[in-house]
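During the no-cost extension, the postdoctoral fellow (Dr. R.K.) reprocessed legacy sequence entries with the updated structure-token encoder. One reprocessed record is reproduced below for audit purposes.
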Amino acid sequence: MSHSVTLYAAETCSWCVAVKEYLQAREIDFEQVDVSADPASAEEMVRKTGQMGVPVLDIDGNMVIGFNKSEIDQLLGLV
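Re-encoded structure tokens follow.
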């Protein structure tokens, strides 16, 4: 099953790297947006979540704040 996954991240965020590696290890295609370099994307993330911290995942329109493995797995149907 194909999912629409966007990772809102920042270059210097170690948790963002961990989420990216987690998705790659599970062969999940995703778009990564660097909110530290793209103010418009940062505004979009805050508008969607009310959060200013990263990582944030948008999985098929469902927002996941932080590196929440169980929620990520559930939304991707990995459980």
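The chain has one domain: 5-76. Residues 23 and 58 are 13 Å apart (CA to CA). The remaining legacy entries will be reprocessed before the final report is submitted.
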